[in-house]
Amino acid sequence: MSASEYLPSSRSLRTLSRAARDCQGCELYKRATQTVFGAGRAGSQIILVGEQPGDREDLEGLPFVGPAGRLLGEALENAGIDRELVYVTNAVKHFKWEPRGKRRLHKKPSARELAACRPWLEAELEAVRPQVVVCLGATAAQSLLGRNFRITQQRGELVSSDLADCVMATWHPSAVLRAPDKPARDRMRGELVDDLRRVRSVLA
After folding, report:
1. What is the dihedral of CA 185, 190, 191, 197, to 10 degrees?
2. Which one, out of 23, 36, 89, 184, has a CA that is 20 to 30 A from the CA of 62?
3. Please, how many CA atoms are within 13 Å of residue 71, restricted to the half-sphere of its CB?
4. DSSP tally for the chain: helices H, then strands E
């Protein structure tokens, strides 16, 4: 199974977003509320790629609108990057979850699910044509840069790629929120902001 058969012939962000609503390229659509496509405009200099939508994103239909999205917005502001000029999306467009009481908890997508959804991400990259791609978290980084990529070792490095002029991986905001204590959260948040500042300097 793959999303490729659901891609429209016209590859503008509007037509892609509309077509993605009906995607059944993997089994995740069965339990998700809706497809959560990327948000932003063509010509954005930066694309931020996360792993998958969370519970709040699944309900609202927009990426990065939950707690991790708020932290991301603060980090972008601290780095001097206007979020309105950034395209945000995820490697997987449906929320994968498991029940925990009354809550729906995030479950990591499989390699097969990432591969099935890859055509949407490739089409977004083609439509936006960013100068820099920023992978938020290990799953997005390994999806775009290979399974051997280690974010703990290569975070913040500018990587050459045919995806864009530069590609970088940094912490996913949700990983910052899940850090075990305040010193760890503060450190990771600072590193996220520093990495985004480096992205801004590349564009400058």
Report:
1. 150
2. 184
3. 19
4. 8, 7
DSSP secondary-structure letter at 136? E
**Domains, the chain, ranges and CATH?**
3-203 (3.40.470.10)
- The residue among 88, 111, 127, 91 whose CA lies nearest residue 8 is 127
With CA atoms as reference, report the closest residue to 106 among 154, 190, 177: 177
Q: At a CB cut-off of 8 Å and minimum separation 6, what does 148 contact?
A: 142
Separation CA 1–CA 124 (nearest Å): 20
Place of tokens 């760890």: 184
pLDDT for 33-78, tens place per residue?
999 999 999 999 999 999 999 999 999 999 999 999 999 999 999 9
Q: What does the alpha-carbon distance between residue 29 and residue 134 come to, in Å, rounded to a whole number?
A: 26
Position 46, amino acid: I
Model-level pTM greater than 0.90?
yes
